[in-house]
Structures are given as structure tokens and as C-alpha cells.
Amino acid sequence: MLMPYLMLGYAAAALLLLVGVEVCSRAVPGLRGVRILRWAMISAVVGVLLLALRSHAPNWISILCANAAIYACILLIYWATAEALDARARFLPWGGGLILAALGGQAFYVYAHDNLLARVLISSTAMAIVAGATAALLFRYEEPVEEWAQSGWSLRAQTRALAWLQVANGLDHVARLVLSVVYPPASYVHMDVIQAGFTYVNMLLNVAASCGVIWLALSVHRRGLQKAAGTDGLTGLLNRRAFEEILARDLRRANRDGRTLPVLLLDIDHFKAVNDSLGHQAGDQVIQRVADALRDCMRPSDVLCRFGGEEFVMLLNGATLDQADEIARRLRTEIMLLTRLPGGLRLTASLGVATSRAGELPEELLKRCDEALYRSKRAGRNRVTVDGMLSAGMRGKPEELIPWRALSPSGTDSARPR
């Protein structure tokens, strides 16, 4: 089998991928990693074309420049993968040093001591290390909880599939390294079956890895679009549509597993007076401050949403009813302690907590939560109601629970809540 024909086939595949990368980048602007992948494909085309010139060009072109381009290609694929995931490419400087060392070894075994087997071992070792680094990057990737929570779209399947693909790529290089020692290659112009087989498999794996980067970039882009569609523009929290989808999903799981699922609904007291007295800009600032306070109190498993207007809802995954009560009372206290609000406001909030029942629908659970909230309102506000009953310690007069300062529509202070 002639190596030039195999290399020309590899170049054709890389060229087609380069065209695909260009099409994707133009059709979907802003894809992360695609710009770097473009240079990886250019390097691949240049490298394999130079390898195909082995018997027609000097060694510094057909060996050193060719291998430099191919090494650059695999390192750029690593970088493109990190860029697509918005992850730190920690291996990049080490990979650059590895490439320089490999090229130094190639030059030594071309000019100082011509040894084809040594060059094969150097190339296989270097490329196996880069493939391993790419696999490690993908395996270590920890998707931020808020990313998949707000988008409903996880990258776990993509990252795991591409990680195992890179493992296969690395094992291909290791196997080539071992078998090359056992069965040393005789010629690069007329390749033996072993070298031809490894070259062909490596071509397929690198093409698949490049396609995988495009897949990953498109998946990240899709997740970003879904996150944007499910995000409240003022607070950055989930919006109602996204929350209802997550609630329906988690409620199905809870019903299937025989668990209960607490939901907490919070409403800022007298918020209309803030807008009427200080304007909507001040009202927006209040909403943002409350959202920040609630976000700071979240557990990693909780899901927080701006439900509409001055209402917020929190899904308390894994919490018992008593724990949900404790969380609600802590949130009430945090809002009471907010300072430096527009107009020197002091805020309070009313909260309602309900926990799911077997076979209950999401809208039924939210309705009971809403009823609990309005029981807190009717009882004097600044209270917590849990499954229809006022929480312990919430049965005093409102003014005993907090030093109250609310704004009347005219902008003057009122001594009692309305």
C-alpha cells in the first residue's frame, strides 16, 4: 500500500471537515472553539500533504514540517475542545513544550542518527499524551449546576462520548508504539499492513474527534439559547416557563421514587407602594436585591425562580417539611435585614410552603403553595405558612416580628403594614 495515497485520502477528509467548519461558523456565528478547530483542520491538511511528499521533498519538509503540522493539529483539537466547554486549557503550555521536544527528537533521528523506528515511537508517544490530556479534560469537566438547571440541557452525554473517543485514540497510538517495537516498520513509502492499519484507524478517530468538537460547540450554543429563553432578564434567575418545566420533571421523579418535594413561594410585602412612591427603577432595584439575597441562601440542589412581579418561588429538592420551614424562616429574616435600599426602605416578605402529595400535578402543588402564601398575607404579612398552618414563631403581631417601615403612596412613612 502506498503511503501517498493514504495521506491524500486523509487530506481530503480534513479538507471536507474544514469546509464543514466554515459552514457551521457562518450559519451559527459565535460558536466557541470553531475558530481554533479551523486552524486544526488547516494544519491537518498541510501536514498530511507534506507527508505524502516523503520521497519527493527534502526531509526537513516531508518529515519535520509535516510532523510539526500534525502535532499542531492534535494540540489545537485539545484547545478547541477546552474553548468549546469554556474550560481552562491547562495542558496547552505543556503540550507546546511536548511538541517542541518531539520535533527535536525527530530532527535528531533524521540528521544525527537516521532511525525510522525511533521517529515512530516519538510520534506515537507525543500524540498518545495529547489524546490522554484531551480525554482528561472531558472527563474532568464539571457542568455548573445553574447551567443545566436553567437550560434543561446537559452536556454529560457529549463530553463522555468524546472522552472515550480520545481514550480510543490514545490506545491506538499506544498499540502502534508496542507493535512497532515488535514488528519494526521497514519503509514509509511502501507501508506494511500494521502501519497502514494504524494510520487508517488514526485518521478515522481524528476525523471523529473533529466532528465531535463541532457537535460539542453546537450543543453548548443550544444550551445557551435555551438558558436565555428560560432566564428572567432583570434578575438572571429562572423565569416561570423554565421553572414549571423543571418542577414537572422533578415532581415526576419524586412521585416515582415515593418522595415528597417542598416548594416555597415568596411575595414582597407592599411592593406596589414602592413602585408608586419611588418609581419603577427603584422597584427594579428592590427586586434585584431580593433576588441576590435569595440566591445567597440557596443550597446547590435548590432551584430558584422569579415567578412574576414581586413573587419568587424555590424548589427545595431533598428537603423535609421541617427543613423547608426552617429555610423559609431564614429567607424571611434575610429580607428583613436588607439595608441600603432605595429611599431607606425596610422590606418584609410573606411566604407559603407546600410539599407534594402522591400523584399530585405541578399546578395543584403550586396552587396549595399560593394558598399558603395568601394565608400569610391575611394573617398580617411578614409570616411563613407551611402546608396551611402558620409556622412556629409566626403567630405574633406583625410589629412584634420586625421594626416595620413601609412607604405610603405619597412617599411618607406609615407605622403599620397595609
TrEMBL record:
GO terms for cellular component: plasma membrane. The keyword Cell division does not apply. Pfam families: GGDEF. It comes from the Bacteria. The chain crosses the membrane at residues 36-53, 60-79, 91-109, 116-139, 197-218. Keywords: Membrane, Transmembrane, Transmembrane helix. InterPro entries: Diguanylate_Cyclase, GGDEF_dom, Nucleotide_cyclase, Rev_trsase/Diguanyl_cyclase. GO terms for biological process: cell adhesion involved in single-species biofilm formation; negative regulation of bacterial-type flagellum-dependent cell motility. Its EC number is 2.7.7.65. Residues 259-389 form the GGDEF domain. One of its GO terms (molecular function) is diguanylate cyclase activity. CDD domains: GGDEF. NCBIfam families: GGDEF. PANTHER family: DIGUANYLATE CYCLASE DGCC-RELATED (PTHR45138:SF24), REGULATORY COMPONENTS OF SENSORY TRANSDUCTION SYSTEM (PTHR45138). This is diguanylate cyclase. The lineage of its organism: Bacteria, Pseudomonadati, Acidobacteriota, Terriglobia, Terriglobales.
